[in-house]
Amino acid sequence: MLRKLSIQALAFLLIALPLLGVFGKESQAASSSRIAIISELSGDVQVQKSGGSKKIKAFKKLNLNQGDQLITGDNGSATLQFSNGTSEDDTMTVSKNTTLKFSKLKSGSSTVTKVSMLKGSAWSDVKSIKNKDDEFQVETPTAIMGVRGTNFFAIVNPITGSTNVTVFAGVVQGTPTVPNGGSANGTEGGSDNDSVLIYPTQQLTLSVGIDPSSLEDQLSIVDIQQLVEKMSQEIYLAILRSYEKIQEENQSLIDELQDGERELPATVDSDLDAYMSNVQNLIGALIQQALDSSQIATATMEALLQQVKQEGKQVPSLDDNAKLILSDAEKEKQKKLEEQQKKAEEAATQKQKDKQKEAAEKLKKLQEEAAKKAADNAEKAKQAKEAAEKKLLESLTQQQQQQYQENKKQLEGTTSTTPTTSTTPSTSTPKSSDAKLSALALSSGTLSPAFSSTTYSYTANVSSDTSETGIQPTASTASSIKVNGTAVSSGTNASVQLSPGSNSVAIEVTAEDGVTKQTYTLTINRALLSEIGFSFGDGGLTIDPDVTEYNLGNFEPEDSSFYLTLPYDGTTTYDVTLNGETVPWIPMQLVSLDIPAGTTGLMYFIELAPGNNELQLTTTQGDFSTTYTFTAYVGGGEGPANNAPVAIGAEVNVVAGQGQTINLTATDEDEDELTYQIVTGPAHGTLEHVEGGSYYYYPTQGYTGTDSFTFTAFDGTDYSNEATVSIQIAPPANNAPVAVGAEVNAVAGTGQTINLTATDEDEDELTYQIVTGPAHGTLEHVEGGSYYYYPTQGYTGTDSFTFTAFDGTDYSNEATVSIQIAPPANNAPVAVGAEVNVMAGTGQTINLTATDEDEDELTYQIVTGPAHGTLEHVEGGSYYYYPTQGYTGTDSFTFTAFDG
């Protein structure tokens, strides 16, 4: 994304045209479609798909669409082909530390391709645009390079953000643009106003804020010495591959200059002979400068030249005399521009340092303020807590104080009666509810799909002579395990007997809590056959329990009949068909198969037909059956020669931890029915045959990256080529956590621990962040999702705060914790009676008394007045009692106290 600047920042618009087209030749009109394909790559290359937030590792033949980004690392490079993937496509070779975004890919009546180069460097070779309305643009923070039949090298300076473009063939029209994407004159593509044409051997450097009227001052002959410092081995290879085309186009330019059909451009500060020499020697001088300055080793350059030769292309010779001829004016301008760039880099570097210093100072200040605020809050909470405890202790009797200290000691887990500062309660660790296996292995057969703790159903195939197998389940926690109802220790083998056919094994895992259970089901198929007898070749065929398709090969017409022999034990039945027709059996005594003497068998007479044949054998025992297919071909006759099928590779995207069906494909001119055979299996996953050309692929648990396997197709006569299925295994999309709000009741003047909670489908470890703190209290982080809340002294009512959870990738929603702060529970006062002596005929003041733990202000109320006198309220708890005249004896009254 381009930064907005406080001053008017100028971008750079480059419109590159074919050299001959600039002077009146029109390109052929044609429509073309557009797509970017990674044809070559090395090192660290990643792709971020449009709308996605995660990067995936790039791989060869990966398609890039509008909105996608390509990022090369410190040792990465990539070559992109646009259009249909042929050698005639436009190509872009991307160096290390480069970021490209495919901002627009459009096809129709015209084709538009816009690639934003945010940083780095790239070589562009554009040659196949077929319509004058077609566009190919490379955008940088300060440049837009519109291309038609042009070879150029573009660099975005990582320090200053300036763009440098060097033209090797064709013509480039440069127009400054303002930051909003328009040109300096208000048009998207620019016009001849405020623009400059760049010819072969010239370079243009445009910085942010350049004056459009000074464009020609930024144009000079290419600075070879500076250019080779920016080039990588991949760029040199791309230039060498374009050498023949560049030389042909530039020779046409030279011919027109010599014939007077074209004048030497006014921006070229040299004579005609010098310019023509420079055009011819540009690439040779570039290579020689790279070798002389040791930017590339001679052996490496020779290897690149040899590689391009082997591709059938012309290459330049290593000529020590290849150099560019510079006039005094060109040397002076080159020096001036070099100093200008140096000053710009120094200014940009200093500006970056100033920003970093300013950011560091701001960060330090924020950290200091946060630390001070946290310390102040902690001190306030501590003081408030101590004051509340002191007030409580003062209101208690000695016995109550002793009980309080004992309760506090139990809560704090200490034997001392002295109050401590520890706030961590003593708790026991809850027992795990995890009932998953961490591993599952077999002594015979292979699990399909590959084991995953969250996959609960598997199959495995074993040979017919495997009567038992060892099963080794391993629990991920301290769980108990049973195999077919028999308890086994985690990580040890349990022996399971196998009958011919299908065998079901149940593995039950009970979690440590004794409640949570999970069952894994394993189906083990024991084959009904181990060997088949044939009356040709080696006399027999050993059956692989995981393979059901076999090729018997080619037969001459005179040898196209043979006997098929099968063992017979009285329980297994067979169904044999040849080309869809049932083949009857003939009883016999087996002597050709290695089975116990006296075992009977079945014989079938097989008579193949000319051409392709399909022999099918179905073995059945009870509900279990397996069908084996054998293909054979009989030559002779006058039919047409067979055309071998052509297997077609594929690129498949898979999500880590998830299986996917992959359909293999091949073409066959004869339209024969095809079967498929895996040649090399995947290195990071398992492949299970479903039916036909469908296979189920499951990546190894936890693996992300690339995987592949190879296969061939068979049409009953010939095998195809070997094709590759490339698999890109991307990490699963992250599920953001869901923060769960809560309602908490608190007591005024008393702190409380609040545990924040959130759910996460991916079971990632979560951290919590307070978004908005409480308005009427303080919040102190304890650990994990635990926070200590203390309400403001004397406050009662509602309070709240908000928080989010973070799983390491995404933040959750914002949830609210609502807090209801109630006054502390009231303790009723205790009225204390009294005995008073009064003289007859004399009044007396009586002071009523009561105690109250909360030290509330008390009022008194007379319940039953005296029977032999009068009672008059004075104030507070004071009453004046006057006995009835002449009465002596006892009198009394009752009262209560009220604390509000």
UniProtKB/TrEMBL annotation:
It comes from Cohnella fermenti. This is Tandem-95 repeat protein. Residues 335-362, 393-435 are annotated as: Disordered. It holds the Pfam family FecR. Residues 442-526 form the Cadherin-like beta-sandwich-like domain. Residues 394-405, 412-435 have a biased composition (Low complexity). Residues 68-173 form the FecR protein domain. PANTHER family: LIPL45-RELATED LIPOPROTEIN-RELATED (PTHR38731). Gene3D superfamilies: 2.60.120.1440, 2.60.40.3440. Signal peptide: none annotated.
